């Protein structure tokens, strides 16, 4: 429980973890959560409405949709956490039970590397999100900029370029986006630590089974130890089922949003190919012959398609995705056969 204490404390500050073992109850904390949800929803809604006013600019529309999808994904996580709060509380309570505690120092050392790795990943993502929000704040604090530009394109029923409305709107966008960022990080971290706990529990169960011994003087003790392991396994299955009930929809929406985001990214890359047409809109007819030759070579270079690749080893495409699935299944089948033989 101490390992996820900071995680839950941040979620409590964001209105996503009521104190105690119960879910939301009518009171100040529920009102606090409701106000935050309304503010964040209004931020996303203002971006959605803005699509109508820039509908003639396809590139701008695609860019706005890309941001909105990510923000909706984070907001969806918050809604799922609120709806599944009772399940989450029971899951955390199960982690605190005696079944999930190491029995000796050897078992503590057995699971500690996995927990430490999760802590490291969590700290890295939190630090990165704080740094990102600070960089968004820099234009507002800078006195050299004269353009009243907001971090995100959105529509408001007032002139957001006029002070102090500009500063208020800027801070509103920062707070809303920062809130969504921390939702995404902390909910994902909670899912990650649940998976880590699941793996750790199987390690503890394996260690307990490995150290079962038959005692001549007290055979009942051996049976009691075996029953403990069987019950521990049942508790692990209960824990895994509870975890799956919580994050199955989050992973589902992650898959959809990630797929759409990759598609949008690749579409934005294709817009770069129109640069080659811009060269022919210049006064190239009157250029010297040598300049025309250079321009032609440059235009041919611009027609080279842009692709997403991993270390220039393979490109992101449907064929690559299918090959990855086939390779993953082959590795799984091989390892399964080897484990069966051993």
What does the model show?
The protein is an all-alpha fold and 342 residues long. Helix content is 74%, strand content 1%. The protein contains ten helices and two strands, in the order αααααααααββα. Strands 1-2 form a two-stranded antiparallel sheet. The longest helix is centred in the last third of the chain and has 53 residues. The two termini are 37 Å apart.
The main β sheet shows up as: 2 strands, antiparallel
Q: State the distance separating the first and last CA atoms.
A: 37 Å
Query: Which radius of gyration do the C-alpha atoms yield?
Result: 27 Å
Structural class: mainly alpha
Characterize the overall form. flat
Widest β-sheet, arrangement of strands: 1-2
Top keywords for this entry?
74% helix, single chain, mainly alpha, flat, two-stranded antiparallel ribbon, 342 residues, 2 strands
Quick gist of this model?
By secondary structure, the protein is mainly alpha-helical.
SSE topology:
Layout: H1 5-13, H2 28-53, H3 58-83, H4 85-96, H5 105-141, H6 165-210, H7 219-271, H8 275-279, H9 289-302, E1 309-310, E2 314-315, H10 318-341
Helix pairs in contact: 1-6, 2-3, 3-6, 3-7, 4-7, 5-6, 6-7
């Amino acid at each position: 429980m101490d390992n996820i204490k900071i995680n839950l404390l941040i979620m409590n500050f964001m209105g996503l973890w009521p104190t105690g073992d119960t879910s939301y109850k009518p009171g100040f904390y529920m009102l606090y959560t409701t106000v935050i949800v309304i503010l964040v929803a209004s931020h996303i809604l203002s971006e959605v409405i803005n699509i109508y006013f820039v509908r003639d600019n396809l590139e701008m529309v695609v860019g706005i949709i890309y941001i909105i999808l990510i923000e909706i994904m984070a907001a969806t996580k918050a809604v799922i956490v609120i709806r599944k709060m009772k399940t989450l509380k029971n899951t955390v309570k199960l982690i605190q039970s005696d079944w999930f505690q190491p029995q000796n120092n050897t078992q503590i050392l057995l699971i500690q590397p996995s927990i430490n790795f999760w802590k490291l990943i969590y700290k890295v993502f939190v630090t990165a999100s704080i740094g990102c929000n600070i960089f968004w704040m820099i234009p507002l604090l800078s006195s050299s900029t004269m353009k009243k530009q907001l971090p995100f394109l959105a529509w408001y029923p007032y002139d957001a370029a006029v002070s102090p409305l500009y500063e208020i709107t800027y801070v509103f966008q920062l707070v809303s986006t920062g809130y969504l960022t921390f939702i995404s990080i902390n909910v994902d971290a909670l899912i990650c630590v649940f998976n880590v706990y699941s793996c750790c529990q199987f390690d503890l169960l394996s260690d307990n089974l490995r150290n079962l011994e038959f005692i001549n003087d007290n055979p009942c003790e051996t049976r009691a130890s075996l029953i403990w392991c069987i019950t521990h396994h049942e508790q692990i299955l209960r824990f895994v089922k509870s975890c799956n009930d919580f994050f199955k929809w989050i992973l589902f929406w992650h898959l959809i949003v990630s797929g759409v985001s990759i598609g949008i990214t690749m579409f934005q890359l294709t817009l770069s190919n129109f640069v080659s047409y811009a060269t022919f809109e210049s006064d190239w007819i009157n250029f010297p012959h040598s300049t025309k030759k250079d321009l032609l070579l440059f235009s041919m270079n611009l027609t080279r398609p842009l692709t997403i690749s991993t270390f220039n080893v393979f490109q992101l495409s449907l064929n690559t995705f299918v090959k990855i699935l086939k390779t993953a299944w082959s590795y799984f089948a091989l390892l399964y056969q080897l484990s069966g033989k051993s």
